[in-house]
## 1
Amino acid sequence: MILDTNALSAYADEQMSVFEALSTAKELALPVVVIGEYRYGIALSRRRDWYQKWLDEFVRDCRVLNIDEATTQHYADIRVELKRSGTPIPVHDVWIAALSRQHGLPVLSRDRHFDSVLRFSRVPW
């Protein structure tokens, strides 16, 4: 299962609802976009050292999803679909959705705007 940035943050903060939602996941995956967004948040945090250490350890236990040529086609398809339906979502989330489609993995997220993406599975928590 792919973790969105809000799920990654909740996991780091040990929110039980995230652990429950992930209890049946066979593997955890992090898009590079999510790692970047989270590192940005860490840079602004008062607990920077703790979160940086936690993230470095957590990433080692996850599958990191990189953006490649195949991802770009999914990205373009999703952007066109969303534009035509009049339901745009933030660009970083389009990349997450593209990686989800490419790898056939659901995304754990609280962001309901993902529900506008066709052929996409959001797991709420």
Note: Residues 114 and 122 are 7 Å apart (CA to CA).
## 2
Amino acid sequence: MDRSVDRLLSWAGLACLLLVLLPAPWLFGAWEMWWFWPLFAVISLGALLFGARILLRGEWPRAARRQLPSSPLLGTLNVAAALFLLYAAVRMLQAEVRMDAERSFLLFLSPVLLGIQIAYGCTAAQRRLLLTALLLNIGLLGLYGLLNHAVTGSARVMWANAFPQYVQEGRASGSYYCPDHFAGAVELGFCGGLALLLDRRTRWPWRLAGIGLVAVGVIGVILSKSRGGGLTLMVLLAAAPVVGLHSWQPRRRRWIRVAAFSAAAAALVLFALSGAPYMTRFKAYFRLDRLRDAPPDKRLAILSDTLQHSSRGRMISGALRAWTTQPVFGIGPGMHQHLWPRFAASPDGDVEKGIWPTRTNEHFHSYEVHSDWVQLLQEYGLVGLALLLAPAGLLFAALWRLARRAADGRTPGPPLHAAAVTGLLALIAMAFHSLGDFNLQMPATTWMLAALVSLPLVPRTARDT
């Protein structure tokens, strides 16, 4: 194939990536179907262009071999991801409600398609452009959320009215309807900012950009009043000195880690002692005043009761009770919202005696479980959970290895160490935040995560693809 045609298809594929990754978070996270389906069509078009590049190359077997990953670890990752997608496709075909099952399956398929296009279809220059555009877009997204909150009190979400309960609570939501999902988006920018600051070779323009991303992430999460977002930032501050200091000498790493952990602990104590409205939400949710006054042997029971009676606790408890009916293969993709009313949050009801459960779920509807991990377990079962944990663990291991090798300058590509650390921190952020929220059910957030973790995965021919 003529090299100019290959280059044309390559840049057309990059255009498809940008047409998805940049607008999606501004379109309410692509949550509604009328945004999701057109954007998925663009992802499919990009995948088609990438496939055409492979097929049009003169010697397909040799070209395919050159595109193989540079380590067995990445090859195993590809196989593990394919096995999960195969299982998810079979479960989709077995589902009772096909439309919701298809959306669930595509939320797994679409990030894999994006990752393949980035890892095997982008040149080093395209990776640099994509990383810059992604981080800039997330920064602008956060700035919009801050300005929108300052001007309108977040009464508007882009051109639509915001949900009244969030406006009454004074919570910033940016271009997402839910403040928690806005927090999840700016967390990804926070990860990129930390990665840029932790690499000692980062030049000052990029270092200033890192400071801006960190500031926007922190302020955005605070204004969103997202409890999960705040806890996630704490986890990231603890994880960053562990995963992001490969470019420093061992002795300096030790002192930087001590300083970082001390600063994070001091900030946490000061925040806990403050009377800020954000801290008040934590105290009210966990009933910290009640816990403080309770006997030590009663505190665990009080905390457990508090969590079970919360809206999230009820959703998670109901989902776990649904999962026990089909523990191996799950109740089916997308079936949570359809079977939700059948499972109360507590098991103390009795149909024969006409006794209602203590905690019922008939007063509000749950489209999602508000825990990505529990919803995965509920809908795909233990088999699905195990099959997804395998590629997730391999991906983390691959990024960890790339970060270490990039710090020594042994791997080609864009600012690879910062990109690898960004991917590592992004994985940690979404894995932790997803314990109590459903950020990964928001297509835009999932796609941005897929791009950030795929950018460092450089194949053998990344410099001349």
Note: The beta strands are 156-157, 160-161.
## 3
Amino acid sequence: MPSADPAAPPAHQGFLQSFGLDVRVAALVLIVDNLVFTATFLSGGLLLGVELLAGAILALITYKIQRHWYGDGHNSALIKALVVGLLTAIPVPLTTSLPVGTAGFLGLVHMLLPKRQNKS
């Protein structure tokens, strides 16, 4: 019997799908964050607006990649995109960030696992 809550995630959605980021997103987040944080730091905070804009653009890119390449649904991709955008907009480097690295690792595992065929 299907779930009564239409906002509930599908029952077949596993841990890797729920918490993983596409590997390309994780790499892009680290690269963009390092670039914009370094620019903001070296400018003494004058380029903070650029960091905020980069966070918004990265959120849009993350949403599209998670939807089309990782297979996330709308809500899941949107939540991940907003988190990525928020973390990028905060003027602190994410290079040593455990969540981004872990989510990227989960995405790598998700990508390497064989796809299960739907037997419906």
Note: The chain has one domain: 17-112.
